[in-house]
Sequence to fold (196 residues):
Amino acid sequence: MEQLPEPLRLVLMLRHFSGITSYPEIAHVCEIQVGTVRSRLKQARTKLAQVLLASATHLHDDASRLTEYSRQEAEAPMEGARCGSQPREILELWPPETELFGVLSTPGEHCHPFPAMRRNREKGVTQHLRHVVASRSVTIWEMDVTNPAGIPDPCPPTLAWIMIRRNRRGQTLRVVFPEPQRSGIGGFGSTGGEAP
Fold:
């Protein structure tokens, strides 16, 4: 999967390994048309089949190790937001040039993820990590959201952080509010799926 171009890898990871599985949701997250989602998925599956055949005898990165590392990474920002501090792990993961896009960002302005997290935490909103899927350059953290009683304009019950990385550091981060899943996660119906 790592050998797929990033746009193809992202739609494939969303469709089969995350809770963001419908074509309209994937189109919204990637800011593309539904027809483009279909086209990219078809291209990704074709290329993946070719790559698997060509690399069947080669060693691959351990996907479970990569996912577990990303799960630990996700805990640092959550803990930092709870405490109101910006720990070293957040600075390493999200350097100052990391750009936040989506519902928590301010259109037309460069916005770092941590202040947006802190603002929500100050309103009493908490996030709880539910699911992680990771590759070397695309990471998806899915969260359950808890709002305090009586809060005006509460957050939807689930959100997803979609991170594009370079050299393990976040380059862009998009926050989306997918529809809650009724049963299971992603295309495999499991809560612990990992990207190969």
